[in-house]
Specification:
By secondary structure, the chain is an alpha+beta fold. It folds into three domains: 9-126, Nuclear Transport Factor 2, Chain: A, CATH 3.10.450; 148-257, no CATH class; 259-414, Histidine kinase-like ATPase, C-terminal domain (Heat Shock Protein 90). 45% of the residues lie in helices and 27% in strands. It has helices spanning 35-48, 128-217, 220-255, 267-285, 308-325, 381-391, and strands at residues 9-11, 14-16, 18-26, 53-65, 71-84, 87-102, 105-113, 263-265, 292-296, 304-306, 333-341, 344-351, 395-401, 405-413. The chain has a five-stranded mixed β-sheet with strand order 3-7-6-5-4. A five-stranded mixed β-sheet has the order 9-11-12-14-13. It has a two-stranded antiparallel ribbon with strand order 1-2.
Length: 414
């Protein structure tokens, strides 16, 4: 390629023809000693350049014509950019020529062209084969790495799926654990209306027998009085039957998976329900437990849209924690308060227990963090409560003073 370049030299005001015949040799390190070898070099260059996008920029360094005009020296720096596939390679070459003017012709006496630094053999004139090999190796490495990443990604997806399943199981375990705590409280709560139903049913049976006797005697005044008592008693049976039905529904709502649908809810009634269940649950587990629990509800509190079983779980968790906190207090007290503030409803659960140490205050909403003995808590209660309140667009925060008690505050948007 270089030997075939046009070289124009002016001698006696005429352009002399440049003859390609090589008189002596090229550089010894390239081992080219004749014109045939130059032709072979050019042939290899052409063959190796097929499919390669090559751009050249020639920077003339030296042009010298002897005063006798019989000898000339050329030196050029050549900058080349080669694109092989997606790879771009750049290298510099230097071409130098010494020519003699003999018998009306310019003849190449000596030619030197430095090879690219990546050339590893005489057969590889440009280093193209070497670059192609490197490109192939890189592509192979990229493919292998991509395959590894895909495998790792699949493995991570599987791990994530397993973690989600484990998380769901833990959440369900936490819900069932709290349901277990509720069982005793529910049994106590449901026993009262059932006792009323049983008692009034027995009374009504006696009244029915008296009614039959009065009918047989034709005593209309007594019949009317007995009928009034029966109606009054039946109203009480219905009332306490509905109370028992409400407790069972609350238990079922707490145990089943949330539908995720919000409904207009009486927050005061929800608080009353779950605070009582939590209290009786504590008494059932510890016969000696007793606490003064107060409910200070805002009578004008508006109904708001929430997922009742989810907020119920939050209330149950907070009140359970509050009752546990006052177990060893001389005069235990738990107060549940509701109030409407600007654009939010606030529910407060406070106790006069030992409070939360400042060192762990920031950790209580973290998953799996618990101060309870091993086997007595999963550490998911407050974490789930925090997530539920947040999912409702609300806030859950804690105010505490060590040695004086704690207050957990729920804020829900109206």
């Amino acid at each position: 390629m270089f030997v075939g370049a046009r070289i124009n030299l002016r001698k006696t005001n005429h352009i002399k023809k440049y003859n390609y015949r090589l008189l002596h040799s090229l550089t010894v390190d390239e081992k080219i000693f004749g014109q045939q070898q130059v032709v072979e070099l050019l042939s290899r260059q052409k063959e190796q350049s097929e499919g390669v996008d090559m751009t050249w920029k020639i920077n003339p360094l030296h042009r010298y014509l002897a005063p006798s005009e019989n000898m000339a020296v050329f030196a050029d720096d050549i900058f080349c950019i080669m694109k092989i596939g997606s790879e771009t390679h750049e290298f510099n070459l230097r071409l130098s020529l010494i020519l003699d003017y003999l018998q009306d012709e310019w003849l190449v006496v000596h030619w030197h062209g430095s090879k690219p630094e990546y050339v590893q053999s005489e057969e590889d004139t440009w280093g193209i084969e070497n670059w192609r090999q490197k490109t192939t190796e890189l592509e192979k490495q990229v493919e292998e790495r991509t395959a590894e990443l895909i495998a790792k990604n699949n493995e991570l997806e599987l791990t994530l799926s397993q973690l989600k399943n484990a998380q769901n199981q833990l959440i369900q375990s936490e819900k069932m654990a709290s349901l277990g705590e509720l069982t005793a409280g529910i049994a106590h709560e449901i026993q009262n209306p059932l006792n009323f139903v049983n008692n009034f049913s027995e009374v009504n049976k006696e009244l029915a027998e008296e009614l039959l006797d009065a009918i047989s005697k034709g005593n209309m005044e007594e019949i009317r009085n007995i009928a009034k008592d029966l109606v009054a008693n039946e109203d009480k049976v219905i009332h306490h039957g509905k109370r028992a039905d409400s407790i069972v529904k609350s238990m079922l709502q707490h145990s089943r998976t949330s539908s995720g649908e919000k409904e207009l809810t009486d927050i005061n009634a929800l608080c009353d329900e779950y605070v009582r269940l939590a209290y009786h649950g504590m008494k059932a587990k510890n016969k000696n437990f007793n606490a003064d629990f107060k409910m200070k509800f805002d009578a004008n509190l508006p109904h708001i849209k929430v997922i009742p079983q989810d907020i119920g779980r939050v209330l149950l968790n907070l009140t359970n924690n509050a009752f546990q906190a006052v177990t060893d207090v001389e005069k235990p007290e738990v107060v549940v308060t509701t109030i409407e503030l600007e654009k939010v409803i606030e529910i407060s659960v406070s106790d006069n227990g030992s409070g939360i140490p400042e060192s762990i205050k920031d950790k209580i909403f973290q998953p799996f963090f618990t101060t309870k003995p091993t086997g007595q808590g999963t550490g998911l209660g407050l974490s789930l409560a925090y997530d539920i309140v947040k999912a409702h667009g609300g806030k859950l925060k804690v105010e505490t003073k060590e040695g004086e008690g704690s207050e957990l505050i729920i804020q829900l948007p109206v």
